[in-house]
Amino acid sequence: MDTIRSLMKQHMSLSAMRALANSKVSYTTAKKYIKINGFVAQDLKKYVASRKKPLATILSISHAQINSKNKMTRTYRIANPSYLTLVKDGYGISKNYVPNDLVTVNVATASADTPNKMRKAAATALEKMAKAAKKKGLELVINSAYRSYTQQEELYNEYHAMYDTETADSLVAKPGYSEHQLGLGVDMTSQSVVDGKYSTFGETKEYQWMKKNAYKYGFILRYPSSKTSITGTSNEPWHYRYVGKKAAKECYINNWTLEEYILHHGFDTKIIYAE
Ligand SMILES: [Zn+2]
Percentage of the chain surpassing pLDDT 70? Predict the structure, then answer.
């Protein structure tokens, strides 16, 4: 009875509980895996057989797809997104998820209708970063920040009308799988691009400056050119992700993507295996 009560506290689904019972693994053995975010009851037998440390076991068996090189077709849902939530193919957020602390970012935008809201902490950090850049004579501009599920869906459909499926998929995330819906992803540009002096952000001094300094404000360059196979996303010099100062610094020092950060630390929130 206590076991069932504690499993229910873990928000375990009925089918997961069934899988747990069918595995015939003792609760004492199972317990050390169950408490780790990312645990999948259906994989329990494989965990026990692997004889590695619980976290390493769970990440490599149930979540090999964190690294996009390892293709898997599993889908997970993040129940309560955090600053460190991994959102990518296979790791989605609910259609209804809207961060409850969205605010307008007080930084210049590329046009009058540029989406310029982010979660409070990310907005404050971006404002500080833009101010610091300005002191160096650099003008950071927002190209796109928070996008709702519906806005992402519209964008996705637009790209799919313009390009073939493969190209479109490499350029725009599926609705429910975009960091923009988290309110933590932002596409940056610079005034020099807006003015037409450069055609892309990657050519600008602002980009060079952000690459070196964004971590000080809690942002990471999310899709670097050298890590496209891990992230599964092509080089996006403009897309930055707020993860908080501590994690951003660790990623910067170690040259890690968010995927690599999670492979070292595990998930910080519950994720649900959507069977
Ligand atoms: Zn983006």
Answer: 96
